[in-house]
Write a structure and sequence with these properties.
Length: about 270
């Protein structure tokens, strides 16, 4: 965990892009938010000089919320969102000591390890707990205007400041694209049986779609399906798929990868 140590000794006037309560909250932690050349900046200030805490191009800081925890420490969570179509969102968190002169970056759950496609992150108080609710579009192989979403929420432990899983839900798919994306999602989460179910649903659905996935892309998806089968100890079934991919696409990279994996598979 990277630690950020800064003396925070000055009263700051934060960016006018925030409502008054948000401006007051940032000022409480001696933070300044600015938009410069389409870049969102969050700074500490010392001796009339700014020390950069966070910098994100084409992102706006849209929400902030604090949580008081044990030993008179406080957590400050920040939500950033990009300005483009299929916007991305992500969360940052900082732990401050009692005197507000030391900030440590908060370790976040895995879901926040990358930017969230079409993400919507909301910070709300529920019975004095901070509830962090997240909605984002699952993207494994296809980026569609409409897709499937994962919704997950966490509560912040008021003593330790750690994240406590609350609940989650994954949307149902409607198209072969949705099912392939879900197959990749569950494979990434090491739920291979569920991943295989969605690979098979996707392949079946594709044959009945009015517009089918092009042959090269479908071969790549079959390669991913074969890898999942190998993880599930279904090597014989995987070999049949790998053999076809390797033969029909020997001149491109995933065809070569299929041949290599076939040779390695017992």
């Amino acid at each position: 965990m990277r630690k950020l140590l800064f003396p925070l000794l000055f009263s700051i006037v934060s960016s006018s892009s925030f409502t008054d309560p948000q401006s007051d909250l940032l000022a409480k932690y001696n933070l300044v938010y600015q938009q410069t050349d389409k870049t969102g900046l969050l700074n500490f200030t010392k001796n009339q000089q700014s020390v950069e805490l966070s910098k994100h191009k084409n992102y706006d800081l849209i929400q902030s919320e604090e949580v008081a925890i044990a030993n008179d420490e406080k957590l400050l969570f920040l939500v950033w969102k990009s300005k483009v179509k299929n916007a991305y969102a992500f969360l940052e968190g900082y732990r401050f000591n009692k005197s507000l002169n030391k900030a440590t970056r908060v370790a976040l759950p895995k879901v926040f390890n990358s930017e969230l496609l079409n993400g919507d992150i909301k910070l709300s108080k529920a019975n004095e707990d901070l509830l962090i609710s997240v909605k984002y579009q699952i993207y494994s192989y296809f980026l569609d205007d409409e897709g499937v979403f994962h919704r997950v929420s966490y509560k912040i432990d008021k003593v330790t400041g750690k994240f406590k899983f609350h609940k989650h839900k994954v949307d149902h798919g409607k198209t072969s694209h949705d099912y392939f994306n879900l197959a990749g999602f569950y494979s990434d989460h090491k739920k291979i049986k569920t991943s295989l179910k969605y690979f098979e649903l996707a392949l079946d659905e594709n044959y009945s779609d009015e517009k089918q996935i092009d042959k090269a892309h479908l071969a790549h998806l079959n390669f991913e399906y074969a890898k999942a089968l190998i993880k599930d100890k279904q090597a014989n079934k995987a070999k049949v798929i790998l053999q076809k991919v390797a033969q029909e696409f020997s001149d491109v990279q995933f065809g070569k990868d299929a041949k290599k994996l076939l040779e390695q598979t017992k």
